[in-house]
Structure formats: C-alpha cells, structure tokens
Amino acid sequence: AIDISKLRAETGYITLDEGYGNTGACESAITYIDGDKGILRYRGYAIEELAEKSRFVEVAYLLLHGELPKAEQLLQFSTRLNESSIIHEDMHHFFNGFPRGSHPMGILATMVASLSTFYPIPDELDSATEIQIVANLVSQVRTIAAFSYKKSIGEPLIYPSYKLKYTRNFLNMMFASPVRDYELDEDIVRAIDMFFILHADHEQNCSTSSVRTAGSSMANVYAVASAGICALWGPRHGGANQQVIQMLEQIHADGGDGTEFINQAKDKNSTSRLMGFGHRVYKNFDPRAQVLKQQCDKLLNKSGMTDPLFDIARRLEEIALKDDYFISRKLYPNVDFYSGLILRAAGIPTNMFTVLFAIGRMPGWLAHWREMLHAKQVTITRPRQIYVGETLRRYQDVDQRS
Ligand code: ACO
C-alpha cells in the first residue's frame, strides 16, 4: 500500500478532495450507511427496527455506549437525564439579553457554549465526569431549546418536570402555559420521539465532522457541541426541512396546487428545486423518509389536522413519484420532506425546526466525541490545500501603489 504521509513528505504531493466526499477522516463503529441500498444502522441495529420498537433515550444510550441498555441501565440513564435537565439559574439572565426575534439556533449555540463556564471541566476527565457531561448536554440542550422558544414569544418559562419522560418533557416545556390548558397528544409525542431517533446520527456529515474537527484540538466539549450546532444551522444541512415548509407556503401564497412549481423545478433554466426531494447519499430511497412517512400519514389523517399546506404536500408527492424527470434521476422524498410536515403538524414554529434536529443529533455528536477521545491515537484535524494565489510579491509603500 502507498504510504501517503511518506509520499507527501518526500514529494509535497497533496490530494484534492473538495468536501471530502472521497476521504475517510476516521474509523468509526457508530453508524453504518449504504446509500445505494438505503441502509442506515446505529451500532448494527436497523433504523427501521429502532424507530418502531425503541424510544429516543434508549437510542441515545445505544449510540453513546455501543449496546442497548438493560432495564436497570435505562432507568439509571433516564433518571440521570432528568436530574441534569435544569440549567444553572444564573443562565436565565442570558435569555433576557438576546434581542427579540433572535434566531433560536443562535441562542442555542451561544447557550450551549456558555455551559462551559457554569459546568467547568477538569483537565483530566474521569469516566464519571464524562458521563455527567454527556447527560448535561443531552438533557440541557432540550431545556435551552424550549426556554429560547418561550422567551421568543414572551411567555414565562416552564421548567423541566421530574415526572415526565424526555420527549414529553420537552413538548411540555414548549407548549404548556400557566394561562392555558395544554394536553399532549400521544401521537405527536411519538412522532417527535421518532424524529429524534431518526436524526440521532448520520456518520460524517457536516456537523459531526465539525464536532470531530473542534474536538480533535481537545477543546472544551461544550464548545465542541456548540460547533456542531453552528454547522447544523445552515440551509444545506439542518435547515432543509424548514425550506420544505417555506416552499409549500410560497406555493399556497401563489394560489397554485404545486403543478407549476414542479414544472419550474424541472426547468434547467430555473434555480428552484423541489425541496425535500433527492439526497446526496441515498440514491434509491432514504430509509428515514420511509419510516417517517408512515408516522406522517398517521398524524395528518387525524381528525382536526387540516392545513392547506398538507394538501399541497400530498399533491407534490403524488405528481413527483410518477414523473419521469424525478424517477430517472432517482429523486425521492427525503427525511426532510416528512419531518417538515410532522413538525408543522405538532405546532413547532418553522424557525425551531433546526433546533429540534440539534436535540436529536446531540447523542450522535457526543458518541463521536467519546469515540475520538478513547481512540488509540487522536490526530488533530489539519487538512492541506492546493495554493492557487500569487507567487512572491514585493511590498510597496502606500503612496506608491497604482
Ligand atoms: N428538484 C429538482 N431537480 C433536482 C432535485 C430537486 N430537489 N435534486 C436534484 N435534482 C436534479 C439536478 O438538477 C440534476 O439534474 P441534471 O442531471 O439534469 O443536471 C440531478 O437531479 C442530480 O442533481 P445533483 O445536485 O447532482 O444531486 P446531488 O446528489 O448532488 O444533490 C441534493 C442532492 C443536494 C439533496 C439535491 O437533491 C437537492 O438539492 N434537493 C433539494 C434540497 C433538499 O431536500 N435537501 C435535503 C437533503 S436531505 C438532508 O440533508 C438530511
């Protein structure tokens, strides 16, 4: 085999792989993907089976520890998450400092990084501290998310409850109010829990690679998690399900049923695309989309679930799945198409969609951080570049520059 490091040292040879689509940056035992066959497995377990039989907290444990928990371990983990769910009371002042209308992802990234100041980490990490940090992040990200939403609508904060399970607890903090009756719908709780499971890890995507990159410098883990949140924020990553709803809103506002939009998306002179269709890795089907579609159909068929956007979405799906343009290019609905609809049906405001993605992805990020921490050798991420700039130039004094 060619020793690339030696070759590079001897010849200055550097491979160019923009976006690292063809470069393995690490070895990992967490998530397996086969894009052609539509396979996604966490620690060897098929995503379909986990989504059907498991719950998010159990999947988080699986990702973090490598094995499904025994009953007693699951209870211990859930209890630890509940005990870690409150954020330091002084952090509440921070929420008041953000301007009205701040994007909740900006708030989330800032607040998660600031956990490092309230929960300092010793230089030498023992396993008990490591487990407590993980519990803090998995649990507190949900509290911060709900608090940032409450602040954005000017309602009093609802604290986490010791009695409620993870996802129910989150939805309660989001939607309960001292001035309003609020009853959680079981199907919505299940759909959001499934959303979290399906987003919990996806190997070396942009945000996870950012977590590994920041983590490889041995930076504080709260800052490392915040780096993941920042990378996820972008519309080309975590923001895609928000764009699905924005597309549906646009079609509705224009008074169309979707046919015209589909024609536009097929037109090579136009820049518009059918959002929620196609995937960089899954070229036949997105296994997460298949699972979520069933849950989505169940929710949207419930009585009282009327929304013109849902009708447009169904129509787009119907037309695209029969259209040669989409069939020949293997463009199928991806996870974002259905997750956008589910989150809307659950009453989650559009600007919180990526925040929910971050809650789901936190165990995956931390599993990668731990895997890296315990690897035999941690190499700091330091890609090279092909320099295409000027050769040596002489400095000119300012009055001599033409
Ligand atoms: N609508 C219309 N045409 C599309 C779409 C779409 N959504 N997606 C791809 N195409 C077309 C392209 O125009 C291209 O056509 P051509 O061969 O005639 O030039 C062909 O399909 C291949 O497109 P690529 O961009 O090369 O496909 P790629 O695999 O690189 O892109 C991507 C995947 C970025 C997801 C793309 O399908 C897309 O933009 N989809 C819409 C946005 C979206 O839903 N993103 C979420 C992805 S899922 C996730 O991130 C969790």
UniProtKB/TrEMBL annotation:
Entry keyword set: Acyltransferase, Transferase, Tricarboxylic acid cycle
Catalytic function, reaction form: oxaloacetate + acetyl-CoA + H2O = citrate + CoA + H(+)
Metabolic or biological pathway: Carbohydrate metabolism; tricarboxylic acid cycle; isocitrate from oxaloacetate: step 1/2
CDD domains the UniProt entry points to: EcCS_like (cd06114)
One protein family per Pfam: Citrate_synt
GO MF terms, alphabetically ordered: citrate synthase activity
Active site annotation, chain numbering: H279, D336
InterPro entries for the chain: Citrate_synth-like_lrg_a-sub, Citrate_synth-like_sm_a-sub, Citrate_synthase, Citrate_synthase_AS, Citrate_synthase_bac-typ, Citrate_synthase_sf, Citrate_synthase_typ-I
Gene Ontology biological process: tricarboxylic acid cycle
GO cellular component: a single term: cytoplasm
Record family assignment: Belongs to the citrate synthase family.
Protein name listed in UniProt: Citrate synthase
Lineage: Bacteria, Pseudomonadati, Pseudomonadota, Gammaproteobacteria, Methylococcales
